Write the C-alpha coordinates for this entry.
Amino acid sequence: DLLNIINGVRQAGNADFLFYEPLLRVDMALMEALLRDEAGRYEPLADGENKAALERMAQIDWDAYPFSVMLIPGQGPDTLDVELDPNGALRCDMAAERYLGGVAPFILTSGGHVHPDQTPYCEALEMKKYLMETHGIPENAILIDPHARHTTTNVRNAARMILRYGIPADKPAMTTTDIFQSIGILTMKSRLLEELGYLPYRTVQKMTGVDNCFLASPDALTADPRDPLDP
Protein backbone atom coordinates (compact mmCIF):
# COMPACT_ATOMS: atom_id res chain seq x y z
CA ASP A 1 0.00 0.00 0.00
CA LEU A 2 0.96 3.67 -0.07
CA LEU A 3 2.46 3.69 3.42
CA ASN A 4 4.72 0.73 2.61
CA ILE A 5 5.87 2.42 -0.58
CA ILE A 6 6.68 5.66 1.26
CA ASN A 7 8.56 3.76 3.98
CA GLY A 8 10.49 1.82 1.36
CA VAL A 9 11.60 5.03 -0.35
CA ARG A 10 12.53 6.56 3.02
CA GLN A 11 14.66 3.56 3.97
CA ALA A 12 16.40 3.58 0.59
CA GLY A 13 17.00 7.33 0.75
CA ASN A 14 20.27 9.13 1.22
CA ALA A 15 21.53 12.64 1.78
CA ASP A 16 22.37 13.01 -1.92
CA PHE A 17 18.72 13.00 -2.99
CA LEU A 18 17.69 16.07 -4.96
CA PHE A 19 14.69 17.84 -3.45
CA TYR A 20 12.18 16.24 -5.82
CA GLU A 21 13.59 12.69 -5.87
CA PRO A 22 11.70 11.19 -2.91
CA LEU A 23 8.31 12.17 -4.36
CA LEU A 24 9.42 11.07 -7.83
CA ARG A 25 10.37 7.64 -6.50
CA VAL A 26 7.06 7.32 -4.66
CA ASP A 27 5.18 8.21 -7.86
CA MET A 28 7.17 5.69 -9.91
CA ALA A 29 6.65 2.95 -7.34
CA LEU A 30 2.91 3.65 -7.28
CA MET A 31 2.71 3.52 -11.07
CA GLU A 32 4.52 0.18 -11.07
CA ALA A 33 2.26 -1.20 -8.35
CA LEU A 34 -0.86 -0.09 -10.22
CA LEU A 35 0.44 -1.43 -13.55
CA ARG A 36 0.42 2.10 -14.99
CA ASP A 37 3.75 1.97 -16.80
CA GLU A 38 2.33 3.20 -20.12
CA ALA A 39 4.40 6.39 -20.10
CA GLY A 40 7.57 4.35 -20.62
CA ARG A 41 6.32 1.11 -22.18
CA TYR A 42 7.09 2.13 -25.78
CA GLU A 43 10.04 4.41 -25.18
CA PRO A 44 12.26 5.34 -26.86
CA LEU A 45 9.75 5.74 -29.69
CA ALA A 46 12.40 7.13 -32.01
CA ASP A 47 14.25 3.82 -31.87
CA GLY A 48 11.12 1.67 -31.96
CA GLU A 49 7.67 2.18 -33.43
CA ASN A 50 8.53 5.56 -34.97
CA LYS A 51 11.99 4.69 -36.27
CA ALA A 52 10.99 3.88 -39.86
CA ALA A 53 8.97 7.09 -40.25
CA LEU A 54 11.74 9.23 -38.78
CA GLU A 55 14.31 7.72 -41.13
CA ARG A 56 12.06 8.57 -44.09
CA MET A 57 11.39 12.09 -42.80
CA ALA A 58 14.73 13.45 -44.01
CA GLN A 59 13.70 12.67 -47.60
CA ILE A 60 10.35 14.48 -47.49
CA ASP A 61 9.67 17.45 -49.76
CA TRP A 62 7.29 19.21 -47.40
CA ASP A 63 6.26 21.71 -50.07
CA ALA A 64 4.68 18.87 -52.03
CA TYR A 65 1.96 18.43 -49.39
CA PRO A 66 -0.73 20.80 -48.10
CA PHE A 67 -0.41 19.35 -44.58
CA SER A 68 2.53 18.07 -42.57
CA VAL A 69 0.86 15.20 -40.72
CA MET A 70 -2.64 13.80 -40.26
CA LEU A 71 -3.68 13.06 -36.67
CA ILE A 72 -6.15 10.23 -35.97
CA PRO A 73 -7.34 10.28 -32.35
CA GLY A 74 -8.15 6.83 -31.03
CA GLN A 75 -11.22 5.42 -29.38
CA GLY A 76 -11.12 2.55 -26.95
CA PRO A 77 -13.56 -0.39 -27.14
CA ASP A 78 -15.94 -1.35 -24.35
CA THR A 79 -14.49 -4.78 -23.56
CA LEU A 80 -11.02 -6.12 -22.86
CA ASP A 81 -11.10 -8.68 -25.68
CA VAL A 82 -11.57 -6.14 -28.52
CA GLU A 83 -8.36 -4.88 -30.09
CA LEU A 84 -9.72 -1.95 -32.11
CA ASP A 85 -13.05 -0.19 -31.68
CA PRO A 86 -15.12 -0.03 -34.91
CA ASN A 87 -15.17 3.75 -34.70
CA GLY A 88 -11.38 3.75 -34.49
CA ALA A 89 -11.27 1.59 -37.61
CA LEU A 90 -13.63 4.00 -39.38
CA ARG A 91 -11.35 6.92 -38.55
CA CYS A 92 -8.45 4.94 -40.02
CA ASP A 93 -10.47 4.27 -43.19
CA MET A 94 -11.03 8.00 -43.66
CA ALA A 95 -7.41 8.82 -42.95
CA ALA A 96 -6.13 6.17 -45.36
CA GLU A 97 -8.27 7.62 -48.14
CA ARG A 98 -6.85 11.07 -47.50
CA TYR A 99 -3.27 9.81 -47.22
CA LEU A 100 -3.53 7.97 -50.52
CA GLY A 101 -4.89 11.21 -51.98
CA GLY A 102 -1.63 12.93 -51.06
CA VAL A 103 -2.77 15.36 -48.38
CA ALA A 104 0.09 14.60 -45.95
CA PRO A 105 3.26 12.47 -45.93
CA PHE A 106 2.55 10.98 -42.50
CA ILE A 107 -0.36 9.66 -40.46
CA LEU A 108 -0.11 10.02 -36.67
CA THR A 109 -2.22 7.57 -34.68
CA SER A 110 -2.82 8.72 -31.11
CA GLY A 111 -4.16 6.94 -28.05
CA GLY A 112 -2.83 4.83 -25.21
CA HIS A 113 -4.10 1.99 -23.05
CA VAL A 114 -7.28 3.84 -22.13
CA HIS A 115 -10.59 1.98 -22.40
CA PRO A 116 -11.50 -0.25 -20.75
CA ASP A 117 -9.26 0.14 -17.70
CA GLN A 118 -6.12 -2.02 -17.83
CA THR A 119 -6.73 -2.98 -21.45
CA PRO A 120 -3.77 -4.80 -23.00
CA TYR A 121 -4.35 -2.97 -26.29
CA CYS A 122 -2.89 0.40 -27.21
CA GLU A 123 -5.19 2.45 -29.44
CA ALA A 124 -2.35 4.03 -31.44
CA LEU A 125 -0.58 0.73 -32.06
CA GLU A 126 -3.78 -1.10 -33.04
CA MET A 127 -4.67 1.68 -35.51
CA LYS A 128 -1.18 1.48 -36.98
CA LYS A 129 -1.59 -2.29 -37.48
CA TYR A 130 -5.00 -1.76 -39.07
CA LEU A 131 -3.70 0.88 -41.48
CA MET A 132 -0.87 -1.40 -42.59
CA GLU A 133 -2.86 -4.63 -42.84
CA THR A 134 -6.15 -3.28 -44.23
CA HIS A 135 -5.01 -0.37 -46.39
CA GLY A 136 -1.39 -1.22 -47.17
CA ILE A 137 -0.06 2.02 -45.67
CA PRO A 138 3.70 1.56 -45.25
CA GLU A 139 5.16 1.62 -41.76
CA ASN A 140 7.45 4.49 -42.68
CA ALA A 141 4.38 6.69 -43.25
CA ILE A 142 2.96 6.12 -39.75
CA LEU A 143 3.93 7.75 -36.46
CA ILE A 144 2.33 6.65 -33.21
CA ASP A 145 1.60 8.47 -29.96
CA PRO A 146 0.87 5.69 -27.43
CA HIS A 147 0.42 8.06 -24.48
CA ALA A 148 -2.69 10.20 -25.08
CA ARG A 149 -5.72 9.36 -22.95
CA HIS A 150 -8.25 11.96 -24.09
CA THR A 151 -8.81 14.51 -26.86
CA THR A 152 -6.79 17.25 -25.20
CA THR A 153 -3.66 15.11 -25.06
CA ASN A 154 -4.28 13.74 -28.57
CA VAL A 155 -3.78 17.28 -29.87
CA ARG A 156 -1.07 18.25 -27.38
CA ASN A 157 1.05 15.17 -28.05
CA ALA A 158 0.70 15.63 -31.81
CA ALA A 159 1.97 19.19 -31.43
CA ARG A 160 4.85 17.90 -29.31
CA MET A 161 5.86 15.38 -31.95
CA ILE A 162 5.76 18.03 -34.66
CA LEU A 163 8.15 20.19 -32.64
CA ARG A 164 10.41 17.40 -31.35
CA TYR A 165 10.77 15.58 -34.66
CA GLY A 166 11.52 18.70 -36.71
CA ILE A 167 8.28 18.56 -38.71
CA PRO A 168 7.67 22.07 -40.13
CA ALA A 169 5.62 23.87 -37.49
CA ASP A 170 4.63 26.62 -39.94
CA LYS A 171 2.82 24.05 -42.09
CA PRO A 172 -0.63 23.11 -40.77
CA ALA A 173 -1.32 19.63 -39.45
CA MET A 174 -4.77 18.13 -39.88
CA THR A 175 -7.06 16.00 -37.75
CA THR A 176 -9.42 13.37 -39.13
CA THR A 177 -12.01 11.82 -36.84
CA ASP A 178 -15.75 11.45 -36.43
CA ILE A 179 -17.96 14.52 -36.62
CA PHE A 180 -18.57 14.68 -32.87
CA GLN A 181 -14.91 14.65 -31.86
CA SER A 182 -14.12 17.01 -34.72
CA ILE A 183 -16.53 19.54 -33.22
CA GLY A 184 -14.99 18.88 -29.81
CA ILE A 185 -11.51 19.73 -31.09
CA LEU A 186 -12.79 23.04 -32.41
CA THR A 187 -14.57 23.98 -29.20
CA MET A 188 -12.31 22.71 -26.40
CA LYS A 189 -10.33 25.90 -25.73
CA SER A 190 -11.68 26.31 -22.20
CA ARG A 191 -11.10 22.61 -21.48
CA LEU A 192 -7.50 22.85 -22.67
CA LEU A 193 -6.85 25.87 -20.47
CA GLU A 194 -8.44 24.12 -17.49
CA GLU A 195 -6.71 20.76 -17.92
CA LEU A 196 -3.34 21.82 -19.35
CA GLY A 197 -3.09 25.50 -18.49
CA TYR A 198 -2.26 26.52 -22.06
CA LEU A 199 -3.24 25.96 -25.70
CA PRO A 200 -1.07 23.46 -27.62
CA TYR A 201 -1.90 25.11 -30.93
CA ARG A 202 -1.55 28.63 -32.32
CA THR A 203 -4.73 28.32 -34.33
CA VAL A 204 -7.31 25.67 -35.18
CA GLN A 205 -9.79 25.79 -38.05
CA LYS A 206 -12.60 23.68 -39.45
CA MET A 207 -12.08 22.16 -42.90
CA THR A 208 -14.94 19.66 -43.30
CA GLY A 209 -17.37 17.96 -40.93
CA VAL A 210 -14.66 15.44 -39.97
CA ASP A 211 -11.44 17.35 -40.72
CA ASN A 212 -9.76 20.24 -38.92
CA CYS A 213 -6.32 21.81 -39.23
CA PHE A 214 -4.06 23.42 -36.63
CA LEU A 215 -0.62 24.95 -36.15
CA ALA A 216 1.48 23.58 -33.28
CA SER A 217 2.45 25.95 -30.48
CA PRO A 218 5.76 25.75 -28.57
CA ASP A 219 3.65 25.80 -25.41
CA ALA A 220 2.82 22.16 -26.14
CA LEU A 221 6.27 21.20 -24.86
CA THR A 222 5.30 22.29 -21.34
CA ALA A 223 5.38 19.25 -19.06
CA ASP A 224 2.50 18.74 -16.64
CA PRO A 225 3.93 18.13 -13.14
CA ARG A 226 0.46 17.07 -11.94
CA ASP A 227 0.30 14.15 -14.37
CA PRO A 228 2.76 11.27 -13.81
CA LEU A 229 1.68 9.73 -17.14
CA ASP A 230 2.65 12.88 -19.06
CA PRO A 231 5.26 11.65 -21.57
In short: The chain has a mean pLDDT of 91.
